Amino acid sequence: MASIKGITVKILPKVQIGLDEFNAPIYEDGKAIEVENVLVAPVGSQENLDVTNLYGKKAQYQIAIPKGDEHTWTDAIVEFFGYRWHVFSLSQKGIEKMIPLEWNDKYYVERYE
């Protein structure tokens, strides 16, 4: 029986570089960090309809993050399959000890141009 294995995904974390005239933070993309064993799955039509109704955005993929990962994925830019993607959903995180596999956190992504 083959085990489930994810792919390597690059995350470009946001780095605060200052404040604007209204004291709102100004961010720029940081250096790409490779995260191994991330599951990537296409979003089905019914699930996409639900996500669109909830967030107002069209999800193309769902990514599952390995247990123990400490990166901030919400609103991050990620790279996989040769494209850039925007993580737009909130974390759907499970309790690590209660989930038997290696992943306990998932997000939706949309194409980023």
Helix and strand topology:
Elements: E1 7-12, E2 14-19, E3 25-29, E4 33-42, H1 45-55, E5 61-66, E6 77-80, E7 83-87, E8 92-93, E9 103-111
What does this structure look like?
The protein has one helix spanning 45-55, and strands spanning 7-12, 14-19, 25-29, 33-42, 61-66, 77-80, 83-87, 92-93, 103-111. By secondary structure, the protein is mainly beta. The strands form 2 sheets. A 6-stranded antiparallel beta barrel has the order 1-4-5-9-7-6. The protein has one domain (7-111): Bacteriophage SPP1 head-tail adaptor protein (Thrombin, subunit H, Beta Barrel), CATH 2.40.10.270. 10% of the residues lie in helices and 47% in strands.
Briefly note the structural class of the backbone: mainly beta
CATH architectural designation:
Beta Barrel
What is the CATH top level name?
Answer: Mainly Beta
Summed up, the helix count is: 1
What is the percent of helical residues? under 10%
CATH topology: Thrombin, subunit H
Largest sheet: 6 strands, antiparallel, barrel
Name given to the CATH homologous superfamily: Bacteriophage SPP1 head-tail adaptor protein
Low-confidence stretches: none
* Average of per-residue pLDDT values: 91
Q: What gyration radius follows from the Cα positions, in whole Å?
A: 15 Å
Instruction: Give the N-terminus to C-terminus distance in angstroms.
Output: 39 Å
Shape: globular
Strand fraction band?
over 45%
What is the N-to-C order of secondary-structure elements (H for helix, E for strand)?
A: EEEEHEEEEE
The number of strands is 9
The domain tally reads 1
